[in-house]
Amino acid sequence: MQILDQAVETIRKLGTNGAPLAVKLEAIAACGDQAARIWQGYLDKPGVPGDKYTIVSWVGAERAKQLYELSLQVHVLVKDVCAAAGNQARFLVLDESPIALAYRGLKEGETGPQAAQALLAAQQVTNKHLRALADKVRVIKPAAKTVKKPAAKKAVPGAAKKKAAPKKKVVARKPAGKKAVKKSAKKK
């Protein structure tokens, strides 16, 4: 679960409040527990042997569908955790599902119950890791925001001696043609 490790590390560096993210990681682990129960249910009652190529033929389509639906639920939760990483989330890509799916081929000479046992063990390890990440995120406290005070303006030497020049009044000037008419009218 490299993506969740990276997201948690980024969140830890940002100092984001970890409590809501711990809840989401616990929800992912709870889905993993459901997946482990599905695998254990198969191991308890394996049923008819399947072909030598796929696990689905041994586990059955219904169990494979349940695992896939759990994977879809987890995918949304993983996106939420990654989104909490802020701008760094754009670099995170879902690499693999935290749910052990039944859509892989069997290895040479491997049977369905052997594959299911391996996938159950992998699911349990993943669930333990998810809970460890939740504990790691839970202890993150929001970083105290520091407010910067604006720096005091420094006095420039000689600036106090200079006074601002008074604004000049703009006088509206009369057009030259009218002046000439007024002067000639005064002469008469």
List keywords for this structure.
188 residues; mainly alpha; elongated
Short description:
With 188 residues, the protein is mostly helical. The protein has helices at 2-14, 19-44, 56-59, 61-83, 112-138, 176-187. Helices cover 56% and strands 0% of the residues.
Number of domains: 1
- C-alpha Rg, in Å? 37 Å
How do the SSEs run, as a string of H and E? HHHHHH
Give helix % range. 55-70%
**How would you sum up the global shape?**
elongated
List the helices and strands and how they pair.
Elements: H1 2-14, H2 19-44, H3 56-59, H4 61-83, H5 112-138, H6 176-187
Give structural notes.
With 188 residues, the chain is mainly α. The protein has one domain. Helices cover 56% and strands 0% of the residues. The protein has six helices and no strands. The chain has helices at residues 2-14, 19-44, 56-59, 61-83, 112-138, 176-187. The protein starts with a helix and ends with a helix. The mean pLDDT is 78.
